[in-house]
Specification:
Blueprint lengths: L6 E11 L4 E6 L13 E2 L6 E2 L1 E7 L2 E6 L5 H6 L4 E5 L13 H4 L3 E3 L5 E10 L4 E6 L6 E4 L7 E3 L4 E3 L19
Parallel strand pairs: 8-13
Antiparallel strand pairs: 1-2, 1-7, 2-6, 3-4, 5-6, 8-9, 9-10, 10-11, 12-13
Length: about 180
Amino acid sequence: MTGADERVCVGVLAGAHGVRGLVRLKSFTERPEDIISYGPLTDASGQRCFEISLNGRARDALLARIAGVNDRDQAEALRGTRLYVTRAGLPEPAADEFYHADLIGLRAEAPDGSVLGRVCAVHTFGGGDVLEIAPETGETILVPFTRQAVPAIEPAAGRLVVDLPVESEAGAETGAADEP
């Protein structure tokens, strides 16, 4: 990130709950309830600010009331709205922890310093985070976000090092050979 005014997505409104204007809110914060403690929540444009109070839980989401939203239709109209806070409002991550937003845009380099591309996304598929790296040309590269695959991360320098496995002609990673 280049400035304290840059915003980070911390949740999404997942639809209405009931008929009195409650919404289901999916939080992307470590402790879901903390979503309302990092400062004003805005939409993607930053133009619309939401005053939110939490009212419990429903399955995998928080239940919330948004000021000015009083019925199911108004709540449902907000479905899919992503909620953002300023990066400056978030606590600094612990050592060896990173916000996804801080990784996106970093230059990805091989151990020899050659540029592989830029981190364009961070995906969480359940088995661990995966970096998506967009090279200048060609298809994106998916790299597991592990210490082995990404041994150095230097956000202040705008870079990270990616140690890609070497592949054989058959496309399999080199290493222990299968016995015939």
